[in-house]
Amino acid sequence: MKSLMINAMQQRIFLSISDRFQEGGPVFMYTTLLVLLAIGALFIFELIKGKNLSKSISLLSSLSLFALVWGFFGQLLGLIQVFDTIESLDNIAPAIIAGGIKITVLSPLFGMFTFLIGRVFIMVLTILKKEKD
């Protein structure tokens, strides 16, 4: 019985994350996900090989900053769409405005998460680099 409840909860969480990715704009959310995967792969590669830490740290820095800026770019485009919708309608409910603004926050939130993960990985590689030198 516990196993069924845990399985149902995991499915609900997965569906919720999937829904948020669609709401946040697939172009921005999935691009950021690809950047997050690239950051993780580069970090793991450097932990295993450790050949060129300086170059990897620089690349991780650029990738994480790209994710952050990309997320805010998605938010600005989303806000423009929200304002266009508000402008076209005469009488708009506050719930519609709140829903539109909530959706525009998803892309920068995921971008910030990716940025923070990248920064943590940079700190770890910097410590490893100092130990090697």
Structural class assignment? mainly alpha
What is the rounded distance between the termini? 55 Å
Determine the fraction of residues in helical runs and give it as a percent range: over 70%
Mean pLDDT: 86
Number of strands: 0
Largest sheet: none
Number of continuous helical runs: 4
Low-confidence stretches are: none
Q: Secondary-structure element order, as H and E?
A: HHHH
* Approximate strand percentage: under 5%
Looking at this protein, list some descriptive labels.
133 residues, mainly alpha, 4 helices, flat
Give the arrangement of secondary structure elements:
Layout: H1 2-23, H2 26-48, H3 53-88, H4 94-132
Helix pairs in contact: 2-3, 2-4, 3-4
